[in-house]
Design brief:
By secondary structure, the protein is an alpha/beta fold. It has helices spanning 44-51, 74-82, 99-109, 114-127, 143-155, 173-188, and strands at residues 6-15, 18-28, 33-37, 59-64, 67-68, 85-87, 161-165, 192-197, 208-212. Strands 6-7-8-3-9 form a five-stranded parallel β-sheet, with helices on both faces. Bound molecules: adenosine-5'-triphosphate. It comes from Sutterella parvirubra YIT 11816.
């Protein structure tokens, strides 16, 4: 049996003395689209944050590529995050920098040279279909284009894992389909995408693993 790329084993997360996830297990393989769905407060973002090393479990184990990342030091967790493509709810585009400058940031953080970071950022923007907006400021983009720019920024370091929180929220159907098709193309190229979503938005024609989360009883 091969080791899953991502795995939670009997994880419990507690915020303010309240368990959000309790004894929760899941796993994801390479080249799989994982849909985490469930209502508000059910812990979808918390699962993404566990894999990114942004939240620590009170109990249980978190594995990425076989490594026990919940035991990582804060420096190791920073490197873990740099190796992943993150589209978290709080990770907005910086409003005072051009789109390409935003997309370059993770490449610069990964210690690429300025020239290489810019080249990769342009490739990522082109792959996401918005190369022509590279020099614009984020406010000049539509909601759909901003979301594509966030995806370009998430994939600039060619990650094996992309973690996305509500990727198509607030997008019209055409933009949602474009974004899902791009996520599907990354999955077909062998990337594992974990998507947290209120609704069942999945790309066509790729292996999908569905994980349904229930809000803790006190909230339901
Ligand atoms: N840093 C935190 N401190 C305290 N409580 C938190 C924190 N982060 C999340 N929570 C609580 O944990 C629960 C699960 O949050 P989480 O964001 O994982 O849910 P979600 O399923 O992603 O919700 P939504 O769909 O609304 O984004 C919520 O009740 C939330 O208020």
């Amino acid at each position: 049996m091969t080791t899953p790329l991502l795995e939670l084993r009997r994880v419990t997360v507690v915020y303010d003395r309240r368990a959000v996830l309790e004894n929760f297990s899941m796993s994801a393989d390479r080249g799989e689209f994982v849909l985490m769905h469930g209502g508000t407060g059910s812990g979808k973002s918390t699962v993404l944050r566990l894999f990114a090393g942004l939240t620590q479990p009170a109990e249980g184990e978190v594995y990425v590529a076989g490594d026990r990342v919940d035991l990582f030091s804060s420096e190791e967790r920073r490197w873990l995050r740099r190796s992943m493509g993150l589209m978290m709810q709080e990770s907005l585009l910086l409003s005072d920098r051009s789109v390409i400058d935003n997309v370059m940031l993770p490449a610069l953080a990964a210690e690429e040279s300025y020239g290489e970071a810019r080249r990769r950022a342009m490739l990522a923007l082109e792959k996401c279909g918005i190369g022509e907006f590279a020099e614009d400021l984020p406010h000049q983009l539509s909601a759909g284009q901003k979301q594509l720019a966030r995806l370009a920024r998430a994939v600039v370091n060619r990650p094996a894992v992309i973690l996305v929180d509500e990727p198509v929220a607030h997008l019209d159907q055409a933009n949602a389909e474009t974004l899902l098709a791009l996520l599907g193309a990354f999955v077909r190229a062998g990337v594992t995408v974990v998507s947290a979503s209120h609704e069942r938005h999945v790309p066509e024609g790729v292996p999908v693993r569905e994980v349904r989360l229930e809000a803790p009883e006190a909230l339901s």
